[in-house]
């Protein structure tokens, strides 16, 4: 499959520099970078969803505190007025 992507001159230059540094074809480096970015994004999304779910589970289990209590803890912890 062929996809055309238009890059800014700066991004294109960085891509060619990275390909030269790795001794690889620029298309190969671009494809590898895209895969890494997409994998990172998927992992980041999954971790965010898991964190939100943990928070919801804690709230459902009664493990929560009021904003006032939280704010007071932060004021003491960071010596805020």
| Main beta-sheet annotation | none
How many runs of DSSP E, i.e. beta strands?
A: 0
Percent strand equals under 5%
Please report the number of helical segments: 3
Portion of residues in helices? over 70%
Termini gap? 60 Å
Unreliable residue stretches: none
Q: What keywords describe this structure?
A:
81 residues, mainly alpha, elongated
Structure notes:
It is built from three helices and no strands. With 81 residues, the chain is mostly helical. It has one domain (9-77). The longest helix is centred in the middle third of the chain and has 35 residues, at 26-60.
TL;DR of this structure?
It is built from 3 helices and no strands. With 81 residues, it is mainly α.
Task: Please outline the helices and strands.
Elements lengths: L8 H14 L3 H35 L6 H11 L4
